[in-house]
Amino acid sequence: MRNFEPVFLPEPRNLFEKAGRMVRGYTMAAGDAILITIEAFSFGRRLPRRRAELMRQMYACSIKSFFIAAVVALCMGMILSRQAGVTLSRFNQQEQVGTLVIISLVRELGPVMTALILAASIGSAYAAEIGTMTISEEVSALKVMSINPVDYLVSPRLYAVLIMCPALTMFSELIGAFGGMLVAKTQLGVSPQSFYKNAILELELRDVYIGLLKSILFAIVIVTVAAYQGLTTTDGAVGVGRSTRRAVVISFLYIMVIGFFVTSLFY
Amino acid sequence: MLEFRNITRSFGDRVVLDKVSFNINKGETFVIVGPSGTGKSVSLRIMIGLLTPDSGEVLLNGQDLIAMDPEQRSAMNSHFGVLFQSGALLAWLTVAQNVALPLLERGVDEDEAEARTMEALRMVKLEHACDRKPSEISGGMQKRAGLARAIVTRPDVILYDEPTSGLDPVMSRHIDALIKELQQRLGVTSVVVTHDLHSAFSIGDRIAMLSDGHIIAMGTPEEFCASDSDIVQGFIKAQFSAGYIRGIKI
Predict the structure, then answer these.
(1) Which of chain A's residues have a Cβ under 8 Å away from the Cβ of B12?
(2) Which of A74, A147, B6, B198 would suit a FRET pair with A238, their CA atoms being 20 to 30 Å apart?
(3) Which of B181, B117, B128 is nearest to B152 (CA)?
């Protein structure tokens, strides 16, 4: 059970020292965040005791994000279908729109968009909640009661998002495909049967697995960043706002960067 | 029982505690007073392991808490109960669930945890609010709930961080009476950090004053009042107009 005590250093004397401090700060933050993640995973053995909290977090992660994820996925599928359909129809290839929509959704857009939605809704909520608990001494109270905050607060959230992020991704992909099929039928004259046939023809099981791998990595990033920002919150209400904003911005950046590297690794 | 030995802690260039030493005896109520920002809460946070001193030792029954690894330190926390300034109750749990939390986390079975929770709530006269959430009760009730949580594990030492801050005078005196009553009933050692001298004189067996990182006065309330330090006298006079405290002329 570690304390995140602020480090006080004298003012940097020049630009090099300032840059060095920054690199040191980011490296230490990354190290702490990784340690929190490892610790949170290791407390998975205590999940049966935390099932009420796990269910509460899964509910918050799924039901409360369900509507926004569905709307975004539907619109995304419809836009993809429309944009691809317009171009493909110039070459009389509009029948291929199903392939394009489903490949884009399963390989990239489904995991990325779902993760961005969860980072904005759940990640920000976690950072604000844990941050408020930190400044109002609730986290300190847990430590004094010999309750590890990572075990009590972070671990159930990590496992909840780990379960719900891939599930929500699959659900988004289905809704997105439905949106794409709807536009293909009504605006491009492509039958649902043809859309489905072309979509399935090109889609490999490997694409689904890689998409799910991405969503698992994104889930870890969302909870790790939010938990770290929350647990290191200082400076009262202003600090909570800062932690929340940082949690969203940093998660967004990592989601895009990790998305790129996983794609580069497998395709 | 609990000893601070040459504790130094600084934040950047600012030295908040400078080789501070004191000893708290078993069963006594030791009050640390001083103006805001003099290191009272820092001392308390060092005692419970939430802050690490730059140097020095904190001994509990002869064992150095600072030298322990985090797991040993966490286990030693079972000796402490803490009432935080804000109560620090978890918002999504009811009062009873908050009080029962440390017991359930230590593996106490549910029936026993419930019985001990209700006993603790009765001691702080809060059994009627056991099913309410912290947001549904007043600040004074939240402090009493925090106190019930601090005593439910039957600790050896109870630490109070500004127990009367933010409360009206009537509720403040009520909390003082409660601290005194609990100390007499449970026989625990109490450490109180406060800037409220009314409270300090009413509950303290010994009072120490922190100023500029040093203990500038320490002793029984009578000895404290008789201190020749200008800072101590100024602090007393700022809170009391001329008159008597516990029969002592000031």
Answers:
(1) 8-10
(2) A147
(3) B117
Kindly list the residues from chain B whose CB atom is less than 8 angstroms away from the CB atom of residue A133.
90
* pLDDT of res. B243: 58
Q: Which of A138, A144, A152 sits opposite B48 (nearest CB)?
A: A144
- pTM of the full predicted structure? 0.86
Closest Cβ–Cβ partner in A1, A8, A137 for B12 = A8
B65's tokens: 């808490």
Average of per-residue pLDDT across B236-246: 68
A35 contact B CB<8A: no
**Contact A8/B10, CB-based, under 8 Å?**
yes
Average pLDDT of the segment spanning B35-64 = 88
Angle between helices A205-231 and A15-42 (to 10 degrees): 110
- The pLDDT tens digits of the residues spanning A128-183 come to 999 999 999 999 999 999 899 999 999 999 999 999 999 999 999 999 999 999 99
Check whether B242 has a pLDDT greater than 60. Answer: no
Put simply, the answer to whether B102 touches A3 (Cβ < 8 Å) is: no
CA B244, CA B79: separation in Å to the nearest integer?
Answer: 37
Query: Which chain B residues touch A136 with a CB distance below 8 Å?
Result: 86, 88
**Pairing assessment for the beta strands B80-83 and B157-161 based on DSSP bridges:** parallel
Q: Are B74 and A146 an interchain contact pair (Cβ–Cβ within 8 Å)?
A: yes
User: Per-residue DSSP letters for B71-107?
Assistant: HHHHHHGGGEEEE-TT----TTS-HHHHHHHHHHHTT
Domain B2-249 in CATH: superfamily?
P-loop containing nucleotide triphosphate hydrolases (3.40.50.300)
Strands B29-33 and B189-193: parallel
Structural domain boundaries in chain B = 2-249
**Could you say which of A1, A8, A145 has the minimum Cβ distance to residue B105?**
A145
CB < 8 Å to A8, chain B: 10-13
Q: Could you give the ipTM of this predicted complex?
A: 0.87
